[in-house]
């Protein structure tokens, strides 16, 4: 068994980091009733989302049913598992059954004809605790997203990974040099699964793991790109930048973005300009390459970006460099998320207005925004918008947040009331049923009453008869004038 699986945390207390998120999960589970909204746990891969859901179930002594993207996750299937009784009464003695919908951002992919809204309805009615797990919160359908309580899991800083790696080493009975552990933790970029797997790969067949074992075993592109960028910027001395570049498993345009992202602002403006000029020339060669499909030109791009920038940086004292992935990528991923959100909103509006998303965007977005500003509550209710989506239309994040919050609260209290009413109705129906059950006894009693009544009547009649007889007798026994 690989170590990532072998050392999967079994209890919440064994998980590293994200303490506040774990506390919220535990609180949710302890206070769970059929009225509690399901959870969405979201965040980067390999940081403990799935493990925490399993660990929670273990801590609560709940059974687990996990539905992955490969399973058929139709409305019918989820309904079958999540519906039914609120307690399992299972053979294992578990009181509840935690349903885990992993990769929930892919839920609609294989949904049945009812689609996401139907699944949302099933989730709303679920009689068992339910946790949805996703990498991208906005990959989830809006209706489903708005139904759930959201908990974010964040990637962990390298320093919090090292103790966990050390713990695994001691459990495996191996020694690992601290710089090697630091190296692994740095390279993992907050992904614990990747850190544990790297440690496993470095330690195969060894009792001791040194720094060299890590760099040899980790053919991870990020480790060499860090080296390459550090060497290009003059923080590290290497014999040949070109040779080092050959070992990097990245295309030249990615390397260029890494160098540009870590260039920073140099105090000497002339040097700054020269570095950017080298990058710009390299970029031109990349353009020629893609235009002509003549990949020999890559070499020119590489030489220009590596040696061009290195030449400017000459004389920098070597030492520690904090090399980071280009901020442009982070901005791009935020922009991508916003784009996804916008597209989803336009398609929702388009469906209700019977037109394409493009028409809504190009022609009607302005009047729709004005309407949304006038009637924000109706928009949120009709389209199940969350605060971010409403904000796209009304451009007022605080107002959007407060409107969505108040509607959520209203919805919750309404649902509570409905459930209360339903419970009352159920109780009344139950009472009626028990009354009906006891009715035949009453009938029996009544019929037996009738029988006694008739018996009494009979007795009465008999008595009357006997009375008349007696009377007759009396009469007959009485002496009359005729007897004499
Ligand atoms: N917080 C953590 N503490 C300890 N180990 C962890 C933690 N997070 C992840 N791991 C290790 O990584 C492995 C994978 O974790 P898990 O499946 O929970 O990640 P995930 O966030 O759900 O990833 P994905 O989104 O890819 O499913 C675990 O088996 C465990 O070995």
Automatic annotation (TrEMBL):
Protein name as annotated: Replication factor C large subunit
Residues that bind ATP: 43-50
Subunit: Heteromultimer composed of small subunits (RfcS) and large subunits (RfcL).
Region of interest: Disordered: 461-484
Biased composition, class Basic and acidic residues, residue ranges: 465-476
Keywords assigned by UniProt, alphabetized: ATP-binding, Coiled coil, DNA replication, Nucleotide-binding
Similarity comment: Belongs to the activator 1 small subunits family. RfcL subfamily.
Coiled-coil region(s): 404-438
Organism: Methanospirillum stamsii
A GO term for molecular function: ATP hydrolysis activity
Span of domain AAA+ ATPase: 35-157
Protein task: Part of the RFC clamp loader complex which loads the PCNA sliding clamp onto DNA.
Listed GO biological process terms: DNA replication
HAMAP family for this protein: RfcL
Lineage of the species this protein comes from: Archaea, Methanobacteriati, Methanobacteriota, Stenosarchaea group, Methanomicrobia
């Amino acid at each position: 068994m690989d170590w990532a699986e072998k050392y999967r945390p079994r209890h919440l207390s064994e998980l590293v980091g994200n303490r506040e998120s774990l506390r919220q999960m535990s609180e949710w589970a302890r206070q769970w009733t059929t009225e509690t909204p399901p959870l969405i746990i979201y965040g980067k891969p390999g940081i403990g989302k799935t493990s925490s859901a399993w660990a929670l179930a273990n801590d609560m002594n709940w059974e687990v049913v996990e539905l992955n993207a490969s399973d058929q996750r139709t409305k019918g299937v989820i309904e079958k598992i999540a519906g039914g009784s609120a307690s399992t009464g299972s053979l294992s003695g578990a009181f509840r059954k935690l349903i885990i919908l992993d990769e929930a951002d892919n839920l609609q992919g294989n949904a049945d004809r009812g689609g996401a809204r139907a699944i949302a309805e099933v989730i709303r009615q679920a009689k068992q605790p339910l946790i949805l797990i996703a990498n991208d919160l906005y990959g989830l359908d809006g209706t489903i997203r708005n139904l759930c309580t959201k908990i974010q899991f964040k990637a962990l800083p390298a320093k919090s990974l090292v103790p966990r790696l050390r713990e695994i080493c001691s459990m495996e009975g191996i020694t690992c040099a601290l710089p090697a552990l630091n190296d692994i933790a740095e390279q993992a970029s907050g992904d614990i699964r990747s850190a544990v797997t790297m440690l496993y790969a470095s330690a195969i067949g060894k009792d001791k793991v040194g720094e060299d074992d890590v760099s040899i075993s980790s053919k991870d592109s990020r480790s060499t790109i860090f080296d390459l960028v550090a060497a290009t910027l003059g923080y590290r001395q290497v014999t040949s930048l070109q040779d080092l570049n050959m070992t990097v498993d990245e295309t030249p345009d990615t390397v260029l973005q890494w160098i540009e992202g870590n260039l920073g602002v140099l105090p000497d403006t002339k040097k700054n300009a020269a570095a950017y000029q080298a990058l710009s020339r390299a970029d031109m060669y990349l353009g020629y390459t893609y235009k002509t499909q003549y990949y020999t030109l890559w070499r020119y791009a590489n030489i220009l970006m590596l040696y061009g920038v290195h030449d400017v940086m000459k004389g920098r004292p070597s030492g520690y460099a904090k090399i980071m992935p280009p901020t442009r990528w982070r901005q791009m991923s935020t922009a991508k998320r916003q784009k996804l959100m916008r597209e989803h909103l336009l398609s929702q509006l388009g469906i209700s207005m019977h037109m394409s998303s493009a028409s809504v965007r190009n022609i009607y977005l302005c009047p729709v925004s004005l309407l949304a500003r006038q009637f924000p509550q109706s928009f949120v209710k009709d389209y199940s918008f969350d605060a971010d989506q409403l904000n796209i239309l009304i451009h007022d994040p605080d107002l959007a947040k407060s409107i969505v919050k108040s509607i959520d609260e209203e919805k919750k209290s309404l649902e509570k009331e409905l459930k209360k009413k339903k419970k009352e109705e159920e109780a009344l129906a139950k009472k009626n049923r028990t009354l009906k059950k006891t009715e035949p006894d009453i009938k029996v009693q009544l019929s037996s009453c009738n029988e006694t009544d008739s018996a009494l009547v009979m007795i009465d009649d008999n008595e009357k008869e006997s009375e008349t007889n007696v009377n007759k007798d009396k009469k007959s026994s009485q002496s009359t004038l005729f007897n004499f």
